[in-house]
Design goal:
Layout: E1 5-11, E2 14-19, H1 21-69, E3 76-80, E4 83-87, H2 95-120, H3 136-153, H4 162-171, H5 177-202, H6 206-249
Parallel strand pairs: 2-3
Antiparallel strand pairs: 1-2, 3-4
Helix pairs in contact: 1-2, 1-3, 2-3, 2-4, 4-5, 5-6
Bound molecules: zinc ion.
Zinc ion binds at residues 59, 63, 105, 154, 162.
Length: 271
């Protein structure tokens, strides 16, 4: 399903791509604007969605550029109606690296909020009863509000959202990495299930409901992938140990002239 995407352009060498379902989102908000304000309303609505997703891309670049400092390859950032995803070839296991890479995304949102607060001040009624003027300042306030929500929302401890990854990194300081992921994913799945129900029943918000259902399965999938890699690594480590033991058990031809040590082993897998 994630293969149905359109490549846009590269930013810092990372391919920016748009999932085809993103076109449905643009069509939906365009139609919504058109029913209220004709073509002008349609164009304004679509530009607002583009501005929102520029902030999403900046958030993902926060993660991606920090990750590259730790040697992670980031081939692509994919935009979907429910948000953006930076694709990493791996996630560093050092809790400190994972903490910094993860925190860099929301930090970008809060930096945007800080710049907009300095430039425009806070909107009326911020944060719970916000009112937006029908002007360029209003658009700036809308971006400020969206970034405040994006930064805060991503810090919910629902693995694999940013807050859940930070939670996993903190657990991994005390627990084995796999156990830390197990607990972060389990708690994340429970919270994602509860929040999906709250979004559906209480807020009647289909986007957020779908987002939490997606997060529920993404957390589970990431834990299972890690489990499989750990088992493969264990398998190869046991194999290498058996091979080394077998080589050690073979006596050298002449004890006074031992044969050279065997070359280092090349292991196939897990990567
Ligand atoms: Zn993030």
């Amino acid at each position: 399903m994630l293969g149905w995407s359109i490549n846009l352009f590269r930013v810092f060498g990372i391919q920016l791509a748009m999932h085809v379902s993103f076109l449905l989102l643009l069509a939906y908000v365009g139609y919504d604007g058109w029913t209220e304000g004709g073509w002008f309303g349609a164009v304004v609505n679509m530009l607002l969605v583009v501005a929102f997703f520029v902030c999403v891309v900046l958030h993902e670049l926060g993660h991606s550029l920090t990750a590259r400092r730790y040697g992670v390859q980031v081939p692509r950032i994919l935009l979907m109606p429910i948000g953006g995803m930076a694709e990493f070839d791996r996630i560093p296991r050092q809790p400190r690296a994972e903490l910094l890479i993860t925190a860099a995304g929301p930090a970008v949102n809060f930096a945007i909020v800080a710049v907009l607060v300095v430039a425009l001040g806070l909107p009326h009624g911020f944060p719970l009863h916000v009112e937006f003027e029908d002007s360029l300042t209003g658009v700036g306030h809308l971006l400020l509000y969206w970034n405040a929500i994006m930064g805060t929302f991503n810090l919910l401890p629902v693995f694999p959202m940013d807050g859940g990854r930070i939670f996993r990194a903190l657990l991994a300081r005390k627990l084995d990495y796999l156990r830390a992921t197990y607990w972060a994913a389990l708690i994340g799945k429970i919270l994602a299930g509860v929040l999906a129900c709250v979004a559906a029943v209480y807020f009647k918000n289909p986007f957020v409901t779908v987002l939490f259902i997606f997060i529920f399965f993404a957390g589970d999938a990431e834990y299972r992938l890690l489990l499989r890699r750990e088992r493969e690594a264990e398998h190869w480590a046991a194999w290498a140990k058996r091979l080394a033991a077998a080589q050690a058990a073979t006596p050298p031809q002449n004890p006074d002239d031992p044969s050279p040590p065997p070359p280092p082993l090349i292991l196939h897998g897990p990567n």
